[in-house]
Amino acid sequence: MAFPKGIIELVDSLYQQGVNEAVICPGSRNAPLMIALTRHGGFKCYSSTDERSAGFFGLGIALKTGRPVIICCTSGSAGLNFAPAIVEAFFQEIPLIVLTADRPKEWIGQWDGQTIYQENLFGRHAKAFFDFETDDCSAAPLTAMAEPKGPVQINVPISEPFYPSVGEVIPKGEVGRVESRDKRVESKEYRVDFSYFNQAISSADKILVTVGQMEDNSIFETLSAYGIPVIGDATSNCGSTIAHDLLLADESIWPALQPDLHIHFGKSFVSKRIKQFLRTHKPKQSWLIHPNPIGRPDPFLCLTHVINTDAQNFIKSAEWSSKSWNTWNSAKITSLQAEFFAQPNWTELHLYNQITEKIEQESAEVHIANSLAVRYINWTLVKFIKTEVYSNRGTSGIDGCLSTAVGAAQKTDKLCISIIGDVAFQYDRNALWNQYIPANLRIIVFNNGGGGIFRNLDGAKDLPELDEFMETRQGFTAKNTAKDAGISYFSASSAAELNLDSFLHNQGPALLEIHTNSIENAAELKKYMALFKA
C-alpha cells in the first residue's frame, strides 16, 4: 500500500508543537493514524477500547500536563462517544486534539457502514474544526492552547487499504529536531489598565472575593492578609477555611454580608447558596478575572466587568489596602461542626469527614466525583488544604469521573485518590478496562445502593417515583470489577471493618468499597443542615 498521503506529516507537525501523548481507540479506519502515532517515536501512546472512557482518560492527562493530548478514534459512532469528554474539556478549558477518522466524502450519506456526518461533530463544544483535506491542521495545537483552552477536532477522511503491506517501511517523524517541543504553547502577556480598578478597590468599603474551580494556588493568602474575605469550594484549591455554604444557610445574615465590590476568580462553584446570595444581594460592581472567558459567564447575575488577565497577575498588579469589615466569620459554624462530628456514626457525612482527615496526612491528590461526593467535601469540618482537589465540574456529569482520575494518575507520583459514588462508579467502570492502572491509584466507592442525592433534594425526595425512577436502586458491588482489573479490594460495612491505613498504604492499586444506608445518610444530613439555619 501507499501510506495515506499527509498523515505522517500531520502527526509530526503536532509533535513539533509540543503534543507528545495520544490515547488511541482500536479501529480499522483510524489504523493509519494509529500507525503514524505509534511508529513516530516521539509519542507516549495509550490504547483504550471504550471511546467514552478514553476521552476522559486523555482529559485527565491534559489536566495534569497542561499540554494538548490527542484522542483518536475510528469513523462513525466512535467519535460521538467522545462527546461527554469533549464537552467537559470545553467548559473546564482543557486542551484536547480530537483525531476522528472518516470515510471518504463521496460515501457520506450513501447508506454505507459507519458513514455519519462528522463535520463539526461536536458543534459549539469544540473550539475549532479542521478538515484534513482542505485546512491547515498545523494550527490545531495553537488553537487548543489559546485562552480559553479547549478541544479542537481534526477530521481525517481515509480510503482503503488501511494497513501497510508486509515489509513496507513507514517513514518516521524527525524526533527531537525542535528543542522547545516540551514547552507550553501559551502567552502570559496581559495588558490591563489598572487605574480604574485600583480606584474602585480603594473606595469600596466591603470587598468579597469568590474563587471557583482552579488548580492549586496559594496566591489568595495575600488578600486574606488584608482582611478581605476569600471564599471558595474545595474545588477552588484556594485554602479558604470559611464554611460559606453552611454560614449562608442562615438567610437572616445575608444583608449584613452584602459587598460593595465582588471579584471572582476561577470557574464554576459547586455551592448554590453563594450564587443565590449574590443574585439577591447584588454588589455595586462584580468583576470576573479571566484571560479570555467563553462568552460572558455570569452565574451570579451581577457581572459588570470582565478583566482579561489571570489571577496571579491581577493580585500582583492591583493596589490593595486593609479592610476591617470582614464579617464572614464561621467560628460559630466550626463550633457546631466540632460538636456534631465528635459523635461519629456509620453514615456518609461522618465517613467523609474521617476520610478527609486521613487523606490530609498523606501526600495525595483527590478526584471527586459529581453528585453527592463533591458536595460532602464542602460540608465536612475537616478541609482539604494541602491536598489538591480535582473534579469534572465543567458540565458536572457523572460520566467519566473515574476515567479522568486514571488518566491523571499517569502523571503524578502522589497517591491519586478517586472518591466516587456507586452509580458514578458503575457508569464508568470501563475506566479500569485497560492496561494503565498505576500503583498509586486508590478508589473509594461509597455504595448506598443507588443515587442517594435524590433523597436530599426538596421536591424529589417525596415523589412516589423516587425509588424506581430517580434513585435507581441497584445491588451491584465493585468487587468483581476490582478483581477483573487486578486491583486489591477492601470492603467495610462498619467502623470495625474500616482500615484506611492498610488501604492507602497498599503496595499496588486498591479499591475500598464502603457500604452505607441511603435512608440513614439522608436523615443524618438533614439533622446536620438544621444546625445552621436561623
Automatic annotation (TrEMBL):
Catalysed reactions listed for this entry: isochorismate + 2-oxoglutarate + H(+) = 5-enolpyruvoyl-6-hydroxy-2-succinyl-cyclohex-3-ene-1-carboxylate + CO2
Keyword set includes Magnesium: yes
Cofactor note: Binds 1 thiamine pyrophosphate per subunit.
Enzyme Commission number(s) of this protein: 2.2.1.9
Name of a matching Pfam family: TPP_enzyme_N
Cofactors required: Mg(2+); Mn(2+); thiamine diphosphate
Gene Ontology molecular function: 2-succinyl-5-enolpyruvyl-6-hydroxy-3-cyclohexene-1-carboxylic-acid synthase activity
Domain Menaquinone biosynthesis protein MenD middle intervals: 210-360
Keywords, alphabetical: Magnesium, Manganese, Menaquinone biosynthesis, Metal-binding, Thiamine pyrophosphate, Transferase
Gene3D superfamilies to which the protein is assigned, alphabetical: 3.40.50.970, TPP-binding domain
Pathway the protein contributes to: Quinol/quinone metabolism; menaquinone biosynthesis; Quinol/quinone metabolism; 1,4-dihydroxy-2-naphthoate biosynthesis; 1,4-dihydroxy-2-naphthoate from chorismate: step 2/7
The UniProt record lists the keyword Magnesium: yes
Classification via SUPFAM superfamilies: Thiamin diphosphate-binding fold (THDP-binding) (SSF52518)
Domain Thiamine pyrophosphate enzyme N-terminal TPP-binding: 10-114
CDD domains, alphabetized: TPP_PYR_MenD, TPP_SHCHC_synthase
Assembly information from the UniProt record: Homodimer.
Chain's role: Catalyzes the thiamine diphosphate-dependent decarboxylation of 2-oxoglutarate and the subsequent addition of the resulting succinic semialdehyde-thiamine pyrophosphate anion to isochorismate to yield 2-succinyl-5-enolpyruvyl-6-hydroxy-3-cyclohexene-1-carboxylate (SEPHCHC).
Family listed: Belongs to the TPP enzyme family. MenD subfamily.
HAMAP family in alphabetical order: MenD (MF_01659)
Protein name: 2-succinyl-5-enolpyruvyl-6-hydroxy-3-cyclohexene-1-carboxylate synthase
Gene: menD
